[in-house]
Amino acid sequence: MTRAEEELGDEKTALKSSEHEEESSTIRTDEVEASLKTKDSLSVAFVNGSERSADDLIIDMKGKDDDGFVGLKKADLQKFASDPYWVRLRIIFLVLFAIIWVAMLVAAIVIIVVAPKCPPRPDQEWWEGAVIYQLNPNSFLDTNGDGRGDLKGIEEKLGYIKDLKVTALNLGPFYPSPREDFGYDIYDFKSVCGHYGTLDDFAALVVALHKQGMKLILDFIPNHTSLKHKWFVQSRNNSDISNTFRDYYIWRSGQNATIPPNNWLNVYGEPAWTFDDARKEYYYHSYSKYEPDLNLRNQDVIQLLDDALNFWLEKEVDGFRLIGVEHLFEPEHLTDDDMKVQPETYDLIGRWRELMNNFSFSEKLRKSRRFSRLLIADIDETANKSAEFFNHNGRPGAHLPTNKVLQRLTAPSSANYVYSLLNEWSEVIRSNSKIANWQVGDYNTSRVVTRMGGKDCLNAINMLLLTLPGTAMVYNGDELGMKDVVLEANSNYSFPQNLILRAGQHSPMQWSDKLHAGFTSGNPWIPIAEGYAETNVEAETAHGSGTSHVKVFQSLAALKQEPSFQWGQFSVAVNKSVVFYVRQAEGFAGYLVAINFGPQASTVNFRESYLKDMLPEEGEIVATTHNFGETSRHENYRQKTVINLGTAVYLKPTEGIVLKWEPKTSFF
Fold it and tell me: What predicted TM-score, i.e. pTM, was given to this entire model?
């Protein structure tokens, strides 16, 4: 067979195969169409023609209308709506719903009425129940090596102060002064002494304090100035009758240059009058001769002091402690021995209370309790006399007249004596519905460790201070157990006799066991107290320091934030050598504080006192003085140990405990 014949044969074969496939496709299409036409449930359309191959065929299949349920028509719904069966069913469901709704409403009302109420919380100012840290800027921390503390040093240590659970910082005098009386002799009320820094440093300190959530209270000294104040310098010129400063101070003529106007003595027991050679008259000074008293009956002087207060309020300070309040006014007639507090004193304090109340940065801030400002009157009077400073003849005065009864504590002090001091002030506070305040030390009082004869008592004293009702004021260093420095043994330092008597408690803050206790890199202005190698912040806060005095202080200051210690009632008793009292706020956990202030151990059953009705059967230990000596007794007084208050409790001298119980709750 030739090649041409072979090719012709292949073409015939391919043609026959194509005809066969087309025929098969036609047969399959016919079969599909015939088959689909037999299905009543479908309609079929060949959308691309029936002449195409089966592989290319597109079929559109549509189901016929389904005769199933598609919903009720309006007529059917109306028929069911009027059917008596469905009408009754709807009424039954409606009644059941109403009954259930009313029952739920009644149940809610019953629960509201009989369930335990949220405990009442008084509308407190920020200083009520606060811990105020009194700080001597001259002795806190020196950052520039000049031997004196400064404002930057205070700012640097704000973290430490915050860790003490402090609410506010009371800053001692930092104004320009020749420092004849530890800075209380001021010659500019509106500036910062160069030793401490600048007004910008002060502003930075205020901002930093407020960021830490703490307040700033300034010492303000309206009673006197320094001899170097420009007011006094000009007041000495009596020849010019147009000199408005002539009457800014208390000037009087004596019989001669050696016999003063009367026999008054200053607070140091020295003559209160000093003759001035320039004016040829005597000026009065209730403190040292370097601090002449201002004439506060002169309205120009009052206005200048008002301006000074406003100046610092503009700097966003949160309050003032007025120094020398008892001596603001003198009897005009200058009668011998007549030195009682004058009525004008209360009026002036009332005036400054109103000034602070009315001061505002804006209307919004004025209405915010957060920006209320505190006025403290620093006095050392009996409780009854102090009460006059709260309110005199219906005019509000100081928010807090200082209560210094605990500064009378010395070694030995019996439990009965402590009990009498607590009652003396508490009764007056209770009868006047005022806020108490307590302090055991300050700039002018020997430190508590020195007065009490050692650090054994420190935790007990701080437990007392931080669990009593009202505001606690703490002098910096008393949380550590610092003691007075003995100046007479330091021949390199020279102080006037009247300052030596008050200088011991001004020794620098003890930060570490390094040279000068870490206070300064230079020579300190006053010696460091003995024992700083063991008694310092670094040692007492270090890991492994155990329950140091600082740590006990921190735990008690934190406990003071509990409602019962903030505003709870206070009921005190004494048995043998133990003073104990209950702090209880309605609806909150209650507490029993017990401290042995006597010279010997005592066994006391608290429920055998008049406080028995206030005490539950058991109490859980939440704080102690951590000085129980023997290991076995430490186990007896471990935290969270539950004590049966119906049995006797054994406490040795300076030991103290705080017990807690939960409030009783009932629906009826």
Answer: 0.83
Mapping DSSP onto H, E and C, the string for 104-139 reads HHHHHHHHHHHCCCCCCCCCCCCCCCCEEEEECHHH
Residues 6+ apart with CB under 8 A from 587: 116, 117, 118, 119, 120, 663
Backbone angles phi, psi at 415, to 5 degrees: -65, -40
Report the distance separating Cα 389 and Cα 376, nearest Å: 10
User: How far apart are the C-alpha atoms of 446 and 487, rounded to whole Å?
Assistant: 13
Three-state secondary structure along 56-102?
A: CCCEEEEECCCCCCCCCCHHHHHHHHCCHHHHHHHHHHHHHHHHHHH
pLDDT of residue 337: 75
How many H-runs (helices) and E-runs (strands) does the chain carry? Answer: 19, 23
387-413 pLDDT, tens digit per residue, is 889 999 989 999 999 999 999 999 889
- Joined together, the tokens standing for residue 410 give 């010395």
**Helices 549-559 and 458-467 sit at what angle, rounded to 10 degrees?**
10
Total residues belonging to the chain = 668
* Radius of gyration of the chain, Cα coordinates, nearest whole angstrom: 44
Rounded CA separation 63/416 (Å):
106
**Distance (Å, whole) CA 1 – CA 362:** 120
Q: Which runs of consecutive H residues, i.e. helices, occur in 48-83? A: 74-81
pLDDT tens digits for range 198-221: 999 999 999 999 999 999 999 999
pLDDT in tens, 31-67: 545 544 444 444 444 444 444 444 554 545 544 455 5
Composition of the chain by helix, strand, coil, percent to 5: 35, 15, 45
Token duo for residue 558: 């934190």
- Measured in whole angstroms, the distance separating CA 224 from the mean position of its chain's CA atoms is 32
Out of 96-100, 287-291, 362-366, 425-429, least confident range? 362-366
CB atoms within 10 A of CB 188: 16
**Position 99: which residue type?**
I
Measuring CA to CA, which residue among 492, 576, 551 is closest to residue 163? 551
Query: What HEC string does 292-342 produce?
Result: CEECCCCHHHHHHHHHHHHHHHHCCCCEEEECCHHHCCCCCCCCCCCCCCC
Task: List 60's β-bridge partners, or say none.
Answer: 45
The answer to whether 140 touches 148, Cβ cutoff 8 Å, is no
What is the rounded average pLDDT for all residues in the chain?
87
**CB 166 within 8 Å of CB 153:** no
